[in-house]
Amino acid sequence: MTVFTKTIPDYQGTSQDSALIRDLTAENEQLRETLKNLLEQATHNHQVMRRHQAFDLQVVGASGFTELIGSIVQTLPLIAELDVVTLTLLDHGGDIHRVLQNLGVDFNCYPNLLFVENEAELGNLPLASHQASMGLFNAQQHRQLFPADLTTPASVAIVPLLRNKRLIGSLNLGSRDPARFTANLGTDFIEHMASIIAISLENVISNELLKYISLTDPLTGVHNRRFFDRRLLEEIGRARRQGYPLACMYIDIDFFKQINDTVGHQGGDDVLRELATRIKAELRLSDALARFGGEEFVVLLIDANSTSACMVAERIRLGIANQPFKLRTGRYCDVTVSIGVATLCDLGGTERNKPIETIAQNFLELADHALYEAKEYGRNRVVCTK
To answer: Is 188 within the bounds of a domain?
Structure first.
């Protein structure tokens, strides 16, 4: 049987067909590259979203003021890829600053935290409109929000912090990239973040104010015994670990009943307030002053030996005895105090194995005994004991 076969020649496309194939191949590669970039951008956006969600949870869950501020000015620049973040708080009368300082906040550690007492101090910033403002950095307009000792940004976003339509401050974001924040950029995302920060700020500040009230003597504005007892235990533990001495002063007004009988109880209250002011003027921020009740005050001196503690006590005594107290009625009242001083200098030795509560009790008893001796020896004097 004869088999017939036909040879089919190879297809030879035209140059036009080849060009079309090349175009399709190039378009396909371009589409692949575009898809790759879109996937990378989607992954990046997802990671950014997750970081911001974690930041939101961190801010909402902050247990105190310093933790919250640390999250805002330290964590936010990292997750949002910013060069500088500052926070401005509107603090009418300086009450928030004063309370936080009395609670031990060291504002030197937070140069990115700024306080203003009224909106006029914010200059001509458009915060009254309650809208975020974005654009190039203007030194005349923005310098008060980005102090010279911080990074100077090229573009900024100034976001008002609002609670119940009330301005409580501003969140200030800065970047060295002049194109990062522009006037036509959407603001929904940063305004949402600012609203969470505003809620968290109001909550922690309210909690700090409640804490301050619970730990403060309402008449004199200094700490109460509850605060002092807690602080004393903390400081004894810290001093034992770090090996520095502590000193305690018991201060009692001499013949306070006679003062009340002479100038009345309102005058006696004036004396107590002025006494607290004069004592505090001789102390460092690290020291603690508390009113134990009645006319008795207690001071804890940090890293103070017997010699330095007795010098401070003598300054306090002289500062009270040498200048009469002016009362709100216009009358003047002579006041003296007796002071007992005790020191702890061997916390790393024989005291190391004793319970901190026992050390604290014995410490206060020593200072109280020294005060008793000062009263017995004629009052208006300082007695120091170890």
So the answer is: yes
